[in-house]
Design a protein that fits this description.
alpha/beta; Rossmann fold; Isoleucyl-tRNA Synthetase, Domain 1; six-stranded antiparallel sheet; 20 helices; binds 5'-O-[(L-methionyl)-sulphamoyl]adenosine
């Protein structure tokens, strides 16, 4: 027998710096759904997830808790594993960067890159907080002070190793341009090329001496390997790269898909391919940067205290409804806003009504008219062909969308079949056929077509909702051989002579009023408190401090390809580059602002404007028909300087 085709998919490895929220759950549910789908199709699919456990932040958290970093990460990691169990994530391997095998691989990679001259010793410069013994980058500072203790910081430098990123920039650009599928979605690819690669890559700091919770550099042990060069190679250390058991490497590398959030796409499409090029390894086939689950007020954040806890939602609604909701609601690739009302409406309408009713009506009528067992002879009739065609289409459309990682539309295709089957009941009116003894055979065909549709539906939903797929197939007693991908390519695989029973509702309906009261209550309370605190229109210094503004130099400015009013700016903030789109094309020629130092708000929620992402807002003064961009007046104010 020929070997099965392999398919290797990874999620990011998570920082165990606290409990994970629904945003983290989203990537993992998506990866799990895709892996289950590939396995269903007969692939030898392999899913990797894990935890990224080293670094200063973890060391500090452990110190605060009065335990060792290892004890700290062991505790959080065991909770993360419990969460994945709860979410029914069927990963094939869970890697921890504290695994001795991973650490060995990292040390060997570091040494190899050093020996071949890609890593060299230099000086790391940053802002140092003496009491905390910590280095911070410009953008991590809060009001120019240490983000941890609030005390002043000073410029300082420490010895560090660096990776020569720039050496590989041309090769990387050529690779990205000749492999159109490598970075997805397309908009992220353009962002990487224009904002990061073309302006020039800086060498990457890959070791530190100011903390010791990390993998020691073997030939210079006061250094530990720093962040990305420890984290990214988890995708190959998990397969045994430079270790004693590299068999998995032969089987699964290069990865078919790295699924990552948009914030870390840069590391996966610039640093990671360059590391792989330096190691002379093939690059992953695709890196997909998905959007974020946001809340109405913006980003979920532990410090603001507005994170949505998946454990609470599973307790309240069950795991499959939550999996269905995140996959169906979010357009993969774009940001989406989490809303509990929508989750409830998905449960009541799509799951309880559409799917649940189809199952309960079909089984109840099979029991009522045939004692639960359908006879073999059956007469075809009106509407059958249409239902059968819809079933075929659902299978092909579903596969097309799943292959494009468009989970939402893949599920939509299944719901088209569910809708068609419900309509078929109304059209064929089994209750009328049931009154006429001469129509018994036709009635049997109607019930068969419905049960067969349910079989196909059960198989199609099983990657996204494994328990529900199984439950539907169990209720209609589908034999194992008819639960396969192959078996649903043809309508008619459900065997005759099977006996079904009436079933309990698949999903209990949620009382919308009750949920609305529960969710609104804390908000109401908060609003009342706010009223008492300050008069309308006045904001406190804390409110003002939430707006982050910085100086940026305009690297380039171009007309938006699809909107006359918009200009697309590439801005340099010192430590990072960003794209901001501004509706000021009426007031400026694009080249007028290039080279100027402007002021931009940097913590606005990113938005897509006619297909391009805008990540912040450039400030302007407006009066009547006049508009002028605010610029920095003289002096040598550096890019990234705080405005306040
Ligand atoms: N440790 C790094 C990844 C290293 S991969 C070699 C890291 N960890 S993280 O825990 O901070 O984030 C893990 C993933 O969660 C990222 O892909 C990030 O985009 C994703 N998300 C964090 N918040 C999110 C939402 N609100 N919505 C969707 N995904 C989000 O980064």
């Amino acid at each position: 027998m020929a070997d099965k085709k392999s398919f290797y998919v990874t999620t990011p490895i998570y920082y165990p710096s606290g409990d994970l929220h629904i945003g983290h759950t989203y990537t993992t549910v998506a990866a799990d759904t895709l892996t289950r789908y590939k396995k269903l199709q007969g692939y030898d699919a392999y899913m990797l997830t894990g935890t990224d456990e080293h670094g200063q932040k973890i060391q500090q958290k452990a110190e605060e808790a009065g335990i060792t970093p290892q004890e700290y990460v062991d505790d959080v990691v065991s909770r993360i594993k419990d969460l994945w169990k709860l979410m029914n994530i069927n990963y094939d391997q869970f890697i921890r960067t504290t695994d001795p095998e991973h650490e060995k691989t990292i040390q060997r990679i570091f040494k190899k890159l050093y020996d071949q001259g890609d890593i060299y010793k230099g000086k790391y410069e940053g802002w140092y907080c003496t009491p905390c013994e910590s280095f911070w980058t410009e953008s991590q500072l809060v009001d120019g002070c240490c983000p941890d203790c609030g005390r002043p910081v000073e410029k300082a430098s420490e010895e560090a190793y660096f990776f020569k990123m720039s050496k590989y920039a041309d090769r990387l650009l050529e690779y990205i341009e000749s492999h159109p599928d490598f970075i997805q979605p397309e908009s992220r690819k353009n962002e990487m090329i224009n904002n990061f690669i073309k302006p020039g890559l800086q060498d990457l700091c890959v070791s530190r001496t100011s903390f010791d919770w990390g993998v020691p550099v073997t030939f210079d042990t006061k250094h530990v390997v720093y962040v990305w060069i420890d984290a990214l190679p988890n995708y190959i250390s998990a397969l045994g790269y430079l270790n004693d058991k590299p068999q998995l490497m032969d089987k699964y590398w290069p990865a078919d898909l790295h699924l990552v959030g948009k914030d870390i796409i840069r590391f996966h499409t610039i640093y990671w391919p360059i590391i792989l090029m330096a190691l002379d390894l093939p690059l992953p086939k695709k890196v997909y940067g998905h959007g974020w689950i946001l809340l109405k007020g913006g980003k979920m954040s532990k410090s603001v205290g507005n994170v949505v806890d998946p454990v609470e939602l599973v307790d309240k609604y069950g795991v499959d409804p939550l999996r269905y909701h995140v996959l169906r609601e979010m357009t993969f690739g774009s940001d989406g806003v989490y809303n509990e009302d929508l989750l409830v409406s998905h449960i009541n309408s799509d799951l309880a009504n559409d799917l649940g009713n189809l199952l309960s009506r079909t089984t109840a009528m099979t029991v009522k008219y045939f004692g639960g067992t359908l006879p073999e002879t059956q007469q075809a009739g009106d509407y059958d062909d249409e239902l059968i065609q819809t079933a075929h289409k659902a299978v092909t459309e579903y596969a097309d969308f799943m292959d494009k990682l468009d989970f939402s539309r893949a599920l939509e295709s299944v719901w088209k079949l569910i809708g068609r089957a419900n309509k078929y009941i109304d059209e064929t009116q089994p209750w009328v056929l049931g009154k006429d003894a001469g129509q018994k055979d036709r009635l049997a065909r109607v019930m068969y077509n419905l049960t067969e549709s349910l079989r196909i539906i059960a198989v199609l939903i099983s990657p996204a909702m494994p328990d529900t797929g199984k439950r539907v197939a169990d209720e209609i007693k589908v034999p194992q051989a008819q639960r396969t991908w192959e078996s649903i390519q043809k309508f008619g695989g459900y065997p005759a002579g099977v006996t079904v029973k009436r079933c309990k509702p698949l999903f209990p309906r949620i009382d919308v009023k009750k949920v609305a009261v529960e969710t609104a209550a804390p908000v109401k309370k908060q609003k009342q408190q706010k009223k008492e605190e300050k008069p309308a229109g006045v904001i406190t210094i804390d409110d003002f401090a939430k707006v982050q503004m910085k100086v940026a130099r305009v690297l380039s400015c171009e007309k938006h390809p699809d909107a006359d009013k918009l200009l697309v700016f590439q801005l340099d903030f010192g430590n990072e580059k960003r794209q901001i789109i501004s509706g000021i094309a009426k007031y400026y020629q694009p080249e007028e602002l290039v080279g100027k130092k402007v002021i931009a708000c940097t913590n606005l929620k990113p938005v897509m404007l006619r297909g391009l992402e805008s990540n912040g807002m450039i400030l302007s003064a407006i009066s009547g028909k006049q508009l002028r961009v605010l610029t920095v007046d003289g002096g040598d104010m550096p890019e990234g300087a705080d405005v306040g």
